[in-house]
Design a protein that fits this description.
Number of domains: 2
Number of helices: 13
Shape: globular
Strand content: 15-25%
CATH class of the largest domain: Alpha Beta
Largest sheet: 8 strands, antiparallel
Oligomer: single chain
Strand order of the largest sheet: 6-5-17-16-15-14-13-12
């Protein structure tokens, strides 16, 4: 598989070879947990160029591209939020939005770009990658490489035996109910989510596996929902162990190439060189929308099932339900359940909304000033509702 490892030294050499154009690029912002504190300028450059920030694998596209035709009728939603009139342009400016692509019946009804982003430029996904990883779990079950969602995780990651993951199943991972203690505070650089990807591991062991296997248990498996990026990284390692190939290669074979994505994707590695199942794919805005369309079409490629029968419906229903009042009403298999549909979500404003009954997909990329705040998610949900109304 193709793999990108572009260091600062390599960038300097490249600048000498390619001339002034590269010399004008800013140096890449720092990686690791520090990306949680990037300035707006660092976000604009870094989110486009994550492969220059950290090592990454390439997810190759195939020989054809799934066309997304322009619909005869284009929408221009207008709505009110917190008492103020909103348009797509005002929303994108206020929310630091770099792209919006809306598909209705598989056709583009709205496509806009901001932050000087071009349609062919990729943008990082953050946790939208989790939903892709869950889809690969389904593909591995369809291929017979994972026997059952009720298999123990340690059957596929033996290093987890003898600790808090004893008795934890693949289903528990996908529904965030392992019962293992975890802190997902993006504002705390000493939290588990900030440390798990950068703390050195035990010799000969993936560092994320090494970190996760030392965590204590706080609840019985299946009894408590706690959002854990580390466990989505474990899910990615589980898939690659089960299928015997890198996640990027498996994704290319099962979805990226046969479905017809328009560009290669980039998938960021952990410090051991394994793609992070919980974070940081980079793709064009239209390819984000194609992921939603793939799910909307039932997980099929050219009429053939990539996923087990009923997988999409099961993955996108509420296995965990949340109290009323929030944007999300529940959680499926690394998919958030929302009013009328489901969504893949990533910090700093990355989101794919899917509304099956309406045959509607909304892809949004952003560079929010905070990783995750209720008012930001609420504003983005209001935008999605305005789009829904405009397409009816």
């Amino acid at each position: 598989m193709h793999k990108i490892k572009l260091t600062l030294a390599a960038m300097t050499l490249a600048g000498g070879l390619h001339g002034a154009a590269l010399a004008q690029e800013p140096p890449p912002p720092p990686g690791g947990s520090s990306l949680l504190t990037w300035t707006p300028e660092q976000q604009r450059y870094g989110y486009r160029n994550m492969e220059k920030v950290a090592p990454a694998h390439v997810v190759p596209r195939g020989p054809h591209v799934k066309e997304l035709p322009l619909a005869a009728h284009q929408i221009d939603p207008k709505w009110t939020w917190n008492g103020a009139p909103q348009t797509v342009a005002s929303y994108m400016a206020a929310m630091n939005t770099s792209a919006v692509v809306v598909l209705k019946d598989g056709e583009i009804v709205l496509e806009r770009y901001g932050l000087d982003r071009k349609p062919n430029e990729r943008w990082t996904s953050f946790s939208v990658a989790k939903s892709v990883t869950a889809t690969l779990v389904g593909a591995a079950i369809k291929d017979g490489k994972i026997k059952s969602l009720d298999d123990n995780v340690a059957n596929y990651i033996p290093e987890l035996k003898g600790g808090a993951y004893d008795g934890v199943t693949v289903r528990h991972l996908l529904t965030m109910t392992s019962g293992v203690k975890w802190n997902e505070d993006y504002t705390d650089l000493n939290s588990d989510v900030a440390r798990a990807g950068i703390v050195p591991g035990e010799p000969g062991m993936n560092p994320i596996v090494s970190y996760m296997r030392k965590l204590p248990r706080e609840a019985e498996p299946g009894t408590k929902f706690v959002y854990k990026t580390g466990e989505t990284d474990l899910a990615g390692i589980l898939v690659s162990n089960a299928v015997g190939k890198p996640l990027s290669q498996y994704l290319s074979e099962k979805l990226w190439a046969p479905y017809g994505m328009e560009q290669d994707a980039i998938w960021m590695d952990d410090t051991a060189g394994h793609e992070r199942g919980g974070c940081c794919m980079s793709m064009t805005a239209r390819d984000y929308a194609r992921i939603g369309q793939f799910m909307l079409e039932g997980g099929k490629v050219n009429g053939q099932d990539v996923l087990p029968p009923g997988w999409v419906a099961d993955a996108t229903r509420a296995h965990q339900s949340f109290p009323p009042g929030g944007v999300e009403t529940g959680y499926g298999y690394f998919w958030w359940i929302i009013d009328g549909g489901y969504a893949a979500e990533g910090i700093f404003g990355q989101q794919i909304f899917v509304y099956p009954a309406e045959k509607l997909v909304i892809a949004v990329n952003s560079a929010w000033p905070a990783a995750s705040k209720d008012e930001l998610w609420q504003a983005q949900a209001a935008f999605a509702q305005a789009v829904r109304k405009a397409t009816k």
